[in-house]
């Protein structure tokens, strides 16, 4: 379908977005329809702010300076009167002595331990390709707002490094709409972290977090978090961005190119060259609707290829035309397109018409409708694209809940790549092993620690990526894998284009599964308690076999036990946890015995098999490996008669 809307300058923009189809790779509306009625009441009173950006910017490729003008239309949909407004100026972090610099240097010499070769493992964030402290004046990044009007009047401002506070002459009333006019200048930093120029692969410009951006305001208030290096939170809005620079540069970015007919270069149709023009400068016009950020990249040597997905978006791949990597980009472009049907079926259809993979940046970095990637790694391709679901459609506050973005994305990319490669068995073993290393170290912190307040990079990465993925995979153990798939689709259906938090996700999980799950969120999010169940003892009880299970750890969980007998048969024993107020469905065809709930305060629990002890050859707690048990040595007992 097409959405037509008007920017502040009354210029018409049309962007194609995919409707949610009635039947889309097995995504069944029977499942989704009951969610609408279930969740309508849960979101009563929900509101979120809105914004429209109309920007005209010029990049001088000789001085690396950007000059720009913005018309920002801001919609105060909240019930609150706003007496001040905040704006992000991210690039002010790229200066020696900044908070980013001080934070990155605070643990760069911290030795976390030794690797298998006996070398020191350092905590320094590898994504800082150049230390901010080493940037020269011409390599620093900065962003300066030289003019700021609200409804046509100059306003008072206070600069606090990466946050600009605006004090309107008149409070912004509930349900009011105001227009900000800004003029700004930026210096593109030498590539250090995510954004900048001249990265290690020779990409000239990778421009993320580059413009004055309205800070998110929600029911908790303003989220004027300084840019330390990690995560983001943005307001849903529409973007019209006109970018003027040297005519020889080729661009990719968020949104859809509006003047493709005059640009050419594969945007109008496959294989066309960049169209010649007589002037020295060329303007590229991008537009995106219902996104919460805008990124772009530029280089003179970029190459552009496309792939069409089945019932999905047009994929763009923009990269350096180097012979040694050409075949990898072509091959991985094919593979990425093949993944889409599985992603749509499992996580929900991608709603936009286009998505762009762009070589650039200092590592894989996700943005709406586009990503920056280094080299042609399929794993990076899929991980960054999965961010389109878990951050670009569900726009969580990453500073507070980075695990809802990175963790869910890591889970999604593992499942997607496993499907593509036809991998069998437990796909997240390496993720669980990384989780075990973190919780076994002295640097573990609660997963709910805000990104900026996490002391070490090891703790941040372990919590955001690994522990977050374990949270989701282990939820499948708690509620059943089939229920987890339903939860993911219900979460998508209810919360896309909104700002969900952990409670929102858990409520969806509870409503779909029919179980109470707040305990699971509380344990995993706000504590560093770990799980350790073991087989304590077994004995013959007449013709029966009795088995005592023991909770050795500090986090209570439901327990699956499989018992194997001499004749090769297996039976399943299941002990639900009292705090669940329910039991998960059977996940296989094995005969299953369901017990009364295990009270979380009780240390041991006895289960019984009707077969004689002499017939038992193996007892195993959770053979699926989804239970994040930190010591699995006591989970299996082999009996050799």
Key terms:
single chain; alpha+beta; Immunoglobulin-like; 11 helices; 37 strands
How would you describe what is shown here?
Residues 1-16 and 19-41 have low confidence and may be disordered. The longest helix is centred in the middle third of the chain and has 25 residues, at 323-347. Among the domains are: 50-235, Immunoglobulin-like (Sandwich), CATH 2.60.40; 412-526, no CATH class; 533-638, Immunoglobulin-like, CATH 2.60.40. It is built from 11 helices and 37 strands. Strand 3 and strand 4 (27-28) form a beta hairpin. The strands form 10 sheets. It has an 8-stranded mixed beta sheet with strand order 11-10-14-6-5-20-23-22, with no helix packed on it. A 5-stranded mixed beta sheet has the order 25-26-27-29-28, covered by helices on one side. It is α+β, with helices and mostly antiparallel strands and 641 residues long.
Write the SSE topology.
Blueprint: E1 2-6, E2 12-16, E3 23-24, E4 27-28, H1 29-40, E5 50-60, E6 65-75, E7 85-88, H2 99-106, E8 111-114, E9 120-122, E10 142-150, E11 153-154, E12 156-160, E13 163-167, E14 177-187, E15 196-197, E16 205-207, E17 213-214, E18 217-218, E19 221-222, E20 237-246, E21 250-253, E22 256-257, H3 260-263, E23 281-291, E24 296-299, E25 302-308, E26 314-320, H4 323-347, E27 354-359, E28 365-367, E29 370-373, H5 378-386, H6 398-420, H7 429-439, H8 457-479, H9 481-495, H10 502-513, H11 518-526, E30 533-541, E31 544-551, E32 559-565, E33 570-575, E34 591-594, E35 604-609, E36 616-621, E37 636-638
